[in-house]
Amino acid sequence: MSEALARDPRRGRRPASRNLTHELRETLGQAIVGERFEGPFPTEFELAKQHGLSRSVTREAVKMLTAKGLLSARRRVGTVIEPRERWNLLDPDVLRWLLQREFSLELLKHFTELRLAIEPTAARLAAINGSDAAIARIAEGLETMAAAENGVGSALDADIDFHIAILGAAGNPFYLQFEELIRTALSRSIAFTNRYGGTANLKEHGDVLRAIAAHDADAADRAMRLLIDNVLALIGRASAEGFGTE
Questions:
Q1: pTM for the predicted model, two decimal places
Q2: Mean pLDDT of 19-44
């Protein structure tokens, strides 16, 4: 790993220290969330030696992971890995590292329940505040989903774009802060749906779009809630059948 981080194969020389820091953060973050560390977390000196990096690079990577709640510095003990309850689970990197672990229906259920707390209200606000241009972006997402069902383009990307466009149409900048969270959670949710229950339901997505385009806030809320409730029901059936445990 030290050689991989130490040199940029495209240029044959060391890349900027910023890139090295982010690569080390990625490597350590995956290892922490994947519970691959045995014993105490390495010291700054040990990390620098193991990965062939400078102390400043390792120090900055540890600071980044500390900000995400994965690590903390304790007097007379050093840097320690924090329990999962203290991790910032809303951080897109932490969320992605969790999803890269072994598949878990329980984790997927938790993500979907969080979507249920965010997306129906976003759809409601999109119906109230959505401009013609914003609604057109939602419609474009649905059209791309339909094309993907016929083998044109990526169904995963199209479905994600549809939901992200609704967050943007809500007209509330705080909803846009959930973009990476929703994007990451949806990528795993849609992959599960495609494996277990077939492709996304275009009619249900169309119902959401039609309600937003008609500026019917109650209908938009109901349509999005139904869409996500159906995903939760699918997860429940999969769990009862032991899906993903074989």
A1: 0.79
A2: 93
